[in-house]
Amino acid sequence: MTVSRIEAAPFAWEFDPSRTALVCIDMQRDFVEPGGFGETLGNNVALLGAIVPTVHALLEWCRARGMLVVHTREAHRADLSDCPPAKRLRGNPRLRIGDAGPMGRILIDGEAGAAFVPGLAPVAGEIEIVKPGKGAFYATALGDILRLKGITHLLFAGVTTEVCVQTTMREANDRGYECLLVEDATESYFPEFKRATIEMIRAQGAIVGWTAPFAALCAAA
Ligand code: TIU
After folding, report:
1. Does the C-beta of 28 come closer than 6 Å to ligand 1?
2. Residue 47 beta carbon below 6 angstroms from any ligand 1 atom
3. Which of 37, 133, 189, 216 could be cross-linked to 30 through a Cys-Cys bond (beta carbons 3.0 to 4.6 Å apart)?
4. Active site residue: 131, 134, 179, 194, which one?
5. Pairwise CA distance, residues 78 & 38, whole Å
6. Does the Cβ of 220 fall within 6 Å of ligand 1?
7. 69: helix, coil or strand?
């Protein structure tokens, strides 16, 4: 077993790359590009595109170490049978899930908007999880896959920090995984929510997990 050590907050994070997976959350056009789900909710999507190069560098860093890589997408079936009315009908968005937008039907699997942003799609051997909720463990095979692969530690990246990333990290923490969020490989439509999420994750002696910038991974012993 090879153990690496990352200088993280609130203290160093030790992991064995052969038992560690990267979970890259929802780096899809519906959240990052104009005309998708994120924008229909009233958000300015410009902030999110800025992390794409760092997420790409993180993917390559994990691939170079032979780590398992998991990519999630939030998307629903075309008939909306896996979309709770409470999710579709809440609020007053310009377009609802399933409505036709400039990138196809909003948040529907198979439509252009539900695809990964250019450059961040899975490569051969990587796992793709399509999820109907904010948490990637809910109603998916993620937990079974990680268990079968012998994974104990998880790195997190993706969008948005306080919604799908935090929800999934909390699900993972309750399942016993040691979790680290890569601070500059995640983003929110609300910078203050990103800051608060990073702080609450690592507070109380890593109550949810650890955080570190990508540079700290690159400097890992
Ligand atoms: N709205 C928002 O911030 N996020 C989501 O709806 N999904 C994810 O975070 N992926």
Report:
1. no
2. no
3. 37
4. 131
5. 19
6. no
7. strand
Q: Which of 98, 103, 102, 100 is nearest to 85 (CA)?
A: 98
Dump pLDDT digits (tens) for 121-174: 999 999 999 999 999 999 999 999 999 999 999 999 999 999 999 999 999 999
Q: Which residues contact 85 (CB under 8 A, 6 or more apart)?
A: none
From 148, 119, 183, 120, select the one nearest 21 (Cα to Cα). 148
Residue 177's nearest CA partner among 157, 208, 152, 211 is 152
Per-residue HEC secondary structure of 140-191 comes to CCHHHHHHHCCCCEEEEEEECHHHHHHHHHHHHHHCCCEEEEEEEEEECCCH
User: In this structure, are residues 68 and 125 in contact, taking their beta carbons and an 8 Å threshold?
Assistant: no
Cβ contacts of residue 206 below 8 Å, gap of 6+? 10, 11
